[in-house]
């Protein structure tokens, strides 16, 4: 059974006030709180959404060793809980299977043991980075990046279908002018610019309906601050022509966009409706709560571990790609 986290649960676990938890989860940078406390609040918020393991059995068999390579730094991971959630799901599966899992952040391969059985890489990586990991072990699994064409197992999300569902959601409610806030970023070595696949899917879907308007599209960097800044820009540029609906491609940016709308006296959902993506803990701790595309990040992490076990146990050499489906979760930010 999945344990539903509340602000009170988190506050009691960390030993801080309800107000502190609320302000941290809403990215209130004016709050004076240590980075370690902030980190603990985010981690507890995510962990309380997972099943608690009652015991850890011992095994006499040779213990597998998996290195988790997270492309985000520890600090940046807190700003986008999507990747933290994948990592926690992955580590939970390793614990269930009695697999030794070690972590490295910001693609730090120097921290990876040379005798690991496999590497599970979370995030986006350039080809030189992929080749560097392949030097450590041929058993690579990529989560949230499709590396099938390069011969590696991959676990991805169906962005195309999810975005179509969001557009359909608004379309069925006669909201045909849909704004977009999306993200773009680079791999840690600066070699590969990663364009948001949801932007491509959104543009394709809207063009098919003869409704794509580049003036309603704004690019950020997936952070809460960029969501705030880009919505401020949209409000300033569009004025009364601000669309009635916005699709925002991750929860931190949606939270920032929500703040900008509040500050400008623009009511959500009465004047502008927001639909976010990923459905991390943040979506449930802002006001109004965010409608969001739910991505089963725990399953993505667990599936990556399953693929490693399958490859090592069967000797499989043919690469596989597993696509994890999504679900639209409607909350207050899109209610009539």
UniProtKB/TrEMBL annotation:
HTH lacI-type domain: residues covered: 5-66
Gene3D superfamilies named among the record's database cross-references: 3.40.50.2300, lambda repressor-like DNA-binding domains (1.10.260.40)
Pfam families hit by this protein: LacI, Peripla_BP_3
GO molecular function, one term: DNA binding
Keyword annotations of the record: DNA-binding, Transcription, Transcription regulation
Stated name of the protein: LacI family DNA-binding transcriptional regulator
Organism, as annotated: Levilactobacillus tongjiangensis
